[in-house]
Design brief:
With about 475 residues, this protein is α+β, with helices and mostly antiparallel strands. It contains eleven helices and 23 strands. Helices cover about 20% and strands about 35% of the residues.
């Protein structure tokens, strides 16, 4: 039989269904992608074409050459696709034919829209991130990491709380993914809970609300810590007064008198949790009178030195302190530094009385202080993106002012620490033309090459966001 006769007698599209059905929610205008996923697709889009092609049984046995839409009335509830396929009928004989597949749009209500219509809660799983400290610098850093890695795209709502954030999901898997992400960035403790919402004894099914609570260690960068006696012994006699210099899945501490750095794993911390005996809110400003470098005492970016300081408010008349510090390569005579004056701080750390007076320094210097901080904040030409959070309307003016101060402190910390901000995406403000320049070349500032364009945060949240906000 010749090729023309084969084309007239053999129908290679005989096994393909000429009519199929797609499921569509009339409320949210999403299409069902079996078994249970709903996706947003425009009419005659590539996404909808892919979804329709997956419903054609037997198409995998042929070679698909082309697929295109045939226009239909939008209100007709019909979709038509023209397919061009090829198939080998005899040895070395390939036939190409075209066929039109018609889809009937079956309009129903998805489970999520049904919950909204009946007033039920839409979320299935909630991840509660908490840190009970005086500031929110660690939480703000984690928020930037979530934005950078787009870990919030599966959330249906993000609720701001005074001591953390609540992430709501319509399934457990994205919540567990975000939970593992936080575990890699901070020392956390996990608490699980579940609540029965409804059950069907006949079908042996039940609906639960799942809750995962992550408690972050009550520490932050630049906090002053007095180690407990067992931990002091386990770490080889470091400290006992140490500084927290880094926080991720473990806690990194530094002994400013010896430049000894140790790591406290998350599991070790949560076996015997401890808190900071002083935070950055009680630091004192000191004036540097003299710096004497200790030869050969270097650990990475830290240089050991004997630094003579006095209080900024008592220059020429107050007491002078000789401090063994790790800031030998940063501070010079005439600079100002921020540090802890242990003589004026009311400590409540457990086990501090077990140490001798020689082990307790009078002053601990933390970092160099840059003047004109208020002026720098006003001239700042960069900003950060923020998550689309549902704000807590019960906050007082004092709490709102405290949150604004926490954000300013976080921005200041990013500005003066280049290593800390290298993982945080900084964006140029829309009205920024040139960067602020300071007279001192050592001033803390962010270069133009570090900034990104585009301050608009384009979220991929689903259609429930406005409904959830209105339900609040």
């Amino acid at each position: 039989m010749c090729l023309n006769c084969l084309r007239g007698t053999v129908d290679i599209t005989e096994g393909l269904p000429k009519e199929c059905t797609v499921t569509w929610c009339r409320a949210c205008e999403r299409y069902l992608q079996p078994p249970k996923y709903w996706t947003k697709c425009d009419l005659e889009s590539k996404e909808l074409l892919t979804l329709c092609l997956k419903k054609i049984k037997g198409l995998g046995k042929m070679h698909l050459v082309d697929a295109s839409w045939i226009w239909t009335e939008p209100h007709s509830r019909r979709l038509k696709i023209k397919l061009t396929v090829q198939k080998e009928v005899f040895s070395g004989t390939v036939i190409q034919q075209s066929v039109v597949i018609e889809y009937v749009v079956n309009a129903i209500q998805c489970e999520t829209c049904a919950k909204i219509a009946t007033g039920q809660e839409q979320w299935v799983c909630v991840l509660q991130l908490r840190q009970r400290v005086e500031h929110k610098r660690m939480l703000l850093y984690l928020e930037q990491m979530v934005i950078k890695h787009a870990m919030h795209t599966d959330c249906i709502k993000i609720q701001a709380e005074p001591d953390g954030l609540d992430f709501y999901f319509d399934s457990r898997s994205p919540a567990l993914k975000l939970l593992q992400f936080f575990n890699s960035l901070a020392p956390t403790k996990r608490i699980d809970a579940e609540q029965l919402v409804s059950s069907d004894l006949k079908n042996n099914t039940a609906n639960f609300h799942y809750s995962y609570r992550l408690e972050i260690a009550r520490l932050c960068r630049e906090d002053l810590v007095c180690l407990t006696r067992p931990l002091y012994t386990a770490l080889g006699g470091i400290g006992p007064i140490v500084l927290v210099i880094k926080m991720f899945s473990s806690i990194i501490i530094l002994d400013p008198k010896t430049l000894n750095v140790q790591e406290i794993p998350s599991a070790t911390y949560w076996k015997s949790p401890f808190t900071a005996c002083a935070t950055t809110r009680v630091m004192t400003q000191f004036y540097v009178l003299d710096v004497e470098i200790v030869p050969g005492a270097v650990n990475g970016k830290y240089q050991l030195a004997d630094i003579t300081v006095c209080r900024e408010s008592e220059i020429g008349s107050g007491k002078e302190y000789i401090v063994r510090s790790h800031l030998g390569n940063v501070l010079y005579a005439g600079d100002t530094a921020m540090g802890y004056d242990l003589g004026t701080i009311n400590f409540n750390a457990d086990g501090m009385e077990s140490y001798s007076a020689e082990q307790m320094p009078e002053v601990v210097l933390v970092r160099k202080h840059y003047p004109n901080q208020a002026l720098r904040r006003r001239r700042r030409k960069w900003a950060l993106k923020q998550l689309p959070k549902v704000k807590n309307l019960n906050l007082t003016k004092a709490q709102e002012a405290k949150e604004e101060a926490a954000m300013d402190d976080f921005l200041d910390e990013l500005e003066r620490d280049a290593e800390y901000r290298k993982n945080v995406p900084l964006y140029k403000k829309p009205d920024a033309v040139t960067m602020t320049t300071m007279n001192d070349p050592e001033e803390a500032r962010v270069g133009l090459e570090e900034l990104l364009d585009g301050m608009e945060l384009e979220e991929e949240f689903n259609h429930l966001e406005e409904d959830l906000d209105s339900d609040e």
